[in-house]
TrEMBL record:
Its EC number is 5.3.1.1. It catalyses: D-glyceraldehyde 3-phosphate = dihydroxyacetone phosphate. This is Triosephosphate isomerase. Belongs to the triosephosphate isomerase family. NCBIfam families: tim (TIGR00419). HAMAP family: TIM_B. GO terms for biological process: gluconeogenesis; glyceraldehyde-3-phosphate biosynthetic process; glycerol catabolic process; glycolytic process. It is found in: Cytoplasm. Involved in the gluconeogenesis. Catalyzes stereospecifically the conversion of dihydroxyacetone phosphate (DHAP) to D-glyceraldehyde-3-phosphate (G3P). The active site is at residues 89, 161. InterPro entries: Aldolase_TIM (IPR013785), TIM_sf (IPR035990), TrioseP_Isoase_bac/euk (IPR022896), Triosephosphate_isomerase (IPR000652), Triosephosphate_isomerase_AS (IPR020861). It is an enzyme of class 5 (isomerase). SUPFAM superfamilies: Triosephosphate isomerase (TIM).
Amino acid sequence: MSKKLVAGNWKLNGSLGANERLLSALAALPGVEMAVCVPYPYLAQAASALQGVSLGAQDVSEYASGAFTGEVSAAMLAEFGCRYAIVGHSERRALFAESDAVVGRKALAAQAAGLVPIVCVGETIAEREAGQVMDVVGRQLAAVLELAGADAMARMVIAYEPVWAIGTGLSATADQVGEVHGGVRSWLRAQGVDADGVRILYGGSVKPDNAAELFAVNDVDGGLIGGASLVAEDFMAICRSAVVKQN
């Protein structure tokens, strides 16, 4: 993997003034790809402010157009210069009842419009304690693979986010992260996906003080950052931890 990807997920946060201060403090770094995924109303502001940092959305509709009030299509996001769209974040799955199949359709819709879907997968604490981590993650990935096929899935980004580590201050250990990330890449290979080029990000309470350790783990190709992406100094520090030195 030539460069890691660090993507900030602002979630339901932001204002024009706060965004201006945050975006102006972000600066592209050599050796790492940076992205920010902002709320829909702020796409234009972010697109005009970002220099060398990719733009992403936090969700996307499975529909291309039609009578779907409140939905935002992948083509609309592409017109704003989005490169990425997050699909299947655990908050969407849990709070808005998005099924694995819906997530798969959203990933396919994003890709059809030229966006790169960041497909989120992860287990609850009960599922981890029951030894079902890869059963759950495999099921979530299989729903995408079934719709998209192996070639298309090879061009997606996977984000492993254990539900119990999102916004809790808890983070999976380096060993836990390495086990799941290695499991995800092995699962992809077993399904006929060219997995070597698939970026697998870790998300779940990544902070400046644990980022370097997490990014050094085998098969960790960057991070999907929540709360820390709202603080420019913290986000930049995390991005610096992901820089891959070029020979």
